Amino acid sequence: MRHLPKTTLVMVAAACVVVAGAAIEGQSPAAAGKGPSATKAKKSTTGKTPWGHPDLQGVWDFRTVTPMERPAELAGKETLTEAEAAEYEKRIVASRNADTARDQSARRTVNGTAETQDIANAYNDFWWDRGTKVIGTRRTSLIVDPKDGKFPPLTEEGKKRLAAEDAVRERPAEGPEDRSVGERCILGFNSGPPMSPGGYNQNVQIFQTPDQVVLVNEMVHNARFIPLDNRPVSGIKQWTGESRGHWEGDTLVVETKNFYQTTSLRGSSPNMHLIERFKRVDGGMIYEFTVNDPTTWTKPWTAEIPMIPSDGPMYEYACHEGNYGMTGLLSGARAVDKKAPGTK
Fold first, then answer.
1. What range does the domain containing 143 cover?
2. pLDDT value at position 185?
3. How many Å apart are CA 300 and CA 69, to the nearest integer?
């Protein structure tokens, strides 16, 4: 469940964006709990815009309980049977229920993102919306390459950088730069790029014009403007990188480079070269992305996430309403400093 909205999301259409379909909310009764499991077929069902491009417009829901990496207990098992999938869904949903799982000291990983249990339990289960279903293919991981469903090994440089980032994150924050881009309300923890399932607000709205595609993520309402006119890249680093798109048949291909800093995908570096593919299929859309970051992983890796159309309006995610939470976090860190041994 998403946070209560302050105002309905307003998209300022500087590029004369035309909405070619009703905006739709992933939290309505019709869609709640389904997640993207309904997307099974790979047959293209793409309609056309008035100017002839494949029409990807609408609000798309990417909730699922299928993890990014294949769990250790499912090593060597690429897909689940229907009965196994039902049992897995039931077990995962129960284990994530914030009203019953109250181990305050535990630490877990959800779709590649470390999550401290005490923070997880700051909300009761009403506020979480991770989905309840595996993806339609019943794969045991969203990662499709490597075939084992795991992230490739980290490079030595990647290990050192992540260890240094973890050390900074575990100490009392010396400033806002010590905290993640999500906590700083710069990027949503599931909005990327690349997008990946997270805790809530798992919706993206797509707008199109003849020469641009716009992706608006409900999490922190980040908007990515993707030119389609073959303009050269500027080389200016940005939080969400610099994207350029083109069509390969019915598939939108988006290449992104020049990241300013790490995105919400844990582990990636500013050197990441990201290739995303969007294609409508029966019942929804397939979102595939390939990460090539030789300063972090020993080889590229690819994930595939089914999305289903949602059926209600998106809402603004206010993110601490001015990020007052950061003031509280830093004030708390200074209070911890005062209690440290040797301080007065």
1. 35-317
2. 85
3. 15
